[in-house]
Design goal:
Elements: E1 2-8, H1 13-26, E2 32-35, E3 42-47, H2 52-61, E4 66-68
Antiparallel strand pairs: 1-3, 1-4, 2-3
Helix pairs in contact: 1-2
């Protein structure tokens, strides 16, 4: 298992509700979370086989942006 952390523009519970179906489908339920208290709105993903690019594509498919943490 590896953890991928990305900066997102997922700001609140409503945003999380919008991305949940797409991220659950791509990443799997209970394998991701967004820290909306963090100024960078960090998405943490636990996965065995997804790449960072796969996770970014899933977030973009849901209508949001994700990028590497700097």
């Amino acid at each position: 298992m590896k953890t991928i952390e990305l900066k997102t523009n997922i700001m609140c519970g409503s945003c999380i509700a919008k991305v949940t179906p797409t991220l659950n489908e791509t990443i799997g339920e209970n394998n991701w979370q967004v820290d909306t208290q963090n100024p960078k709105k960090v998405l943490s993903v636990t996965t065995e086989n997804l790449s960072e690019a796969d996770v970014i594509k899933a977030v973009e498919k849901a209508g949001y942006k994700a990028e590497k943490l700097s």
